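Task: sequence in, structure out. Protein: AAA+ ATPase domain-containing protein.
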Amino acid sequence: MSWIFGMGGGNNPETPNLENIDSVSDKKPSPPPSSSSGEAYKFDSSALERAAKAAKELEKSKHAKEALDLAKLQETTKQIEHQTKIKEYEIHLEQVRMEQKRVDAEERKKLLAEETKQHQLRSQYQDQLARKRYEDQLQQQRASNEENLKRQEESVAKQEAMKKATIEHEIEMKSKLDAKKSEAKALARAKAERENHDLTMEQLKLKASEHRQTVLESIKTAGSIFGSGANALLSDWDKTLMAAGGLSLLALGIYSAKGFTGVTAKYVESRLGKPSLVRETSRFSLLESARHPILTFKELRTKKSSALKDVILPPKLESRLGDVAIATLNTKKNRGMYRNILMYGPPGTGKTLFAKKLAMHSGMDYAILTGGDVAPLGKDGVTEMHKVFDWANNSRKGLLLFVDEADAFLRKRSSELISENLRATLNAFLYRTGDQSNKFMLVLASNTPEQFDWAVNDRLDEMVEFGLPGKEERERLIMLYFDKYVLTPATQSKVKLNIEKFDYSALCKQMAEMTEGMSGREIAKLGVAWQAAGYTSEDGLLTKAMVLSRCEDAIKQHKQKMEWMSEKEKNDSRYTRQKSIH
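Result:
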């Protein structure tokens, strides 16, 4: 390798010029000068000679090893730089690939968005077609119903006219015949009385004499019997003692039977009947089934449904209540301990409805109590409260005990002025709910939970707030009750109710904007008002103007009710409304 080095012209002739090493190594033999086509190629060996001379001088120099190491280091540096350039090129290629992938992903995203948009447009178009078909079917059904109704009315009118004429003729003929019969009977009776007057008087006298003789003989016989009995009783002390003992045993038997009957009645009532505090229950009992057989049969045929069916609530609240329903169902299946729940919020927000749905979804019975029924019981409140919990513990399926308006008797004992009887009833309630139970689940509902006693709050495992419905929930509620009270009856042939043709969905959205602050119960009453408006019209036609008019009336009534509320109730209502909006 000594030929790759070249010597430079420095001050020291033995030291090679390292700056010219690369230039010497990179030199190539210069091409031979061009000559004519007939002249042979000549090799110039001067450069080779100079390289060999420089290598020999370098070998003789004392810095030959350092120069060789420096050359190696330079070569290594060049290789590292070359590798770095290769890495940079690979990184650049990877960046190009990533950019291409990002562009492809954006293109796919745009394509997916366009497909989604087309799918939405297609769904909207299909929805419009379905709605139009439904409206056409409704119009045809209405026309068919009107035609059938008209024919039935004409037929009924003809039948009524014929029936009326027949009845009038029969009445006329019957009145004439009755008059003739009455006249004939009167004449015959008068003639017979004139002919048999003397004989009738003799028969009456004979009967009176016989009756008098019979009465006198009965009096004499009864007197002789009682006299002889009293004489025998007073003359014989053994008979007197036996009579007294018999009367005593008879009295003892009567009082014993009365007490046994009372105990038996209480046992039967605890097993078969429901306590007086329970307003409504789905629990099967022989006494209730005997009183209401049709209602009992319908309840037995009721199938298990979802706990949130026809219960329209905000999404977060629906998700939380869905978890509660699943937990309750699994608790019943695994025979675990039920959790006590408090549901609080404004009236008419679906607390009672959800409690019933939760019990049916979980396969449990439900019983509804009202807190306002406890205070009038007075000193009997403790007994009735124990009856309720004894009755609940005897349930085979498990019982959901729902106490509505619970704040009416579960008030704070430290600050509220409550009677001693109500305080004793509250203590009985706290005693029966001190431990978790696998027989019953306690659900309390209240509009003012801040009035609860601290011991009642200690027994609650979960608290759920029911707020006023928002705009989307109001729209869903209005559509639900419009379909239930208006559209469904309009499609039945037996119901005389017709609907004017208009855009139902747009009208429901408009009314959802108008009914801000109204509860679910008020919206349900609005659906009943629409149905009543259709029934009160002459031709049974419900128009768009009538629907809006009833909605405006309901809004005015709601505002009037809000004005009647006290300042504390208004503040609570505003607070609840703000929380429901947020």
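The first helix runs from residue 21 to 26.
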